[in-house]
Design brief:
Length: 259
């Protein structure tokens, strides 16, 4: 009975939804456009096809199956008009998993602020937002992808932070690692050096979406995108063919590092 289920299962091309839903979808469409469709709010059927929705990874989809599903992928098939979601293709479905945790955190943040709290931290599924009167610091650890330790400690008073990565969510078949993050243009799991992305921003909805977006774009393009957005910074974790880890930073990220 949820709004997203009504949209995804409806035969209608115009579905009226709440202002709340439109705000989240509009933000997701913005980042879909910013990444030229590499981050795509309609990618869900491909995720299902690859078995990541229920982690049934026993068989690989065929190229024919992938191409068939790709016909229903594409954020440009969605538009917002007044209080309606408009679908150009009735088979298009929406996946907001990469952004709703951040949105929920922002809602809780505003509620606690209105209740008069001045020091608090909200965390949902690894996404974080903090409020501080600066008498104490909120310090968050970024997990090392290969060790049971912190990669970096980050001070994020009055900021949000979100991390997306493949190092905890992948499967191996015939010696090859396959990420749970799907490239919506190729239809296949991403294959590049980035294994983790951490984003710091004012609102968590933005950090959440951007962290996922950075996992699907080239690292140089990703850093360039972040450097052109005000009050947003990022850290990328890269792994080479020898399993060696290296880090790439946006221009202002290092000012948040404690150690």
């Amino acid at each position: 009975n949820s709004e997203i289920s009504r949209i995804n299962h409806s035969e209608l091309l115009e579905i009226e939804v709440s202002k709340t839903f439109l705000n989240v979808l509009n933000k997701a469409l913005y980042y879909s456009d910013l990444s030229n469709g590499l981050y795509d709010v309609t990618v869900s059927p491909l995720v299902d096809l690859w078995g990541f929705s229920n982690y049934d990874l026993s068989t690989f989809p065929t190229e024919e199956e992938i191409n068939k599903i790709k016909k229903n992928i594409g954020y440009k098939n969605l538009h917002i008009k007044n209080n309606f979601v408009i679908k150009n293709n009735k088979n298009v479905s929406i996946d907001l998993n990469s952004i709703v945790k951040g949105y929920a955190i922002d809602i809780i943040y505003d509620y606690l602020l209105n209740e008069g709290f001045v020091n608090y931290l909200i965390e949902i599924g690894g996404e974080v937002r903090t409020k501080s009167d600066k008498t104490k610091d909120w310090i968050i650890g970024i997990q090392h992808p290969q060790k049971n330790t912190f990669l970096k400690k980050i001070k994020i008073n009055n900021f949000s932070m979100a991390t997306s990565g493949t190092y905890n969510n992948f499967f191996t078949k015939d010696g090859i690692e396959y990420s749970h993050i799907i490239n919506p243009i190729t239809g296949y799991p991403i294959k590049h050096k980035i294994i983790g992305a951490t984003v710091i921003s004012n609102k968590c909805i933005d950090a959440d979406a951007l962290a996922t977006m950075l996992m699907v774009v080239d690292e140089k393009k990703g850093i360039n995108i972040i450097d052109n957005i005000d009050n947003v910074e990022c850290l990328l974790i890269l792994k080479d063919e020898n399993n060696s880890i290296s880090l790439e930073y946006s221009t202002g990220f290092k000012k948040f590092i404690v150690n």
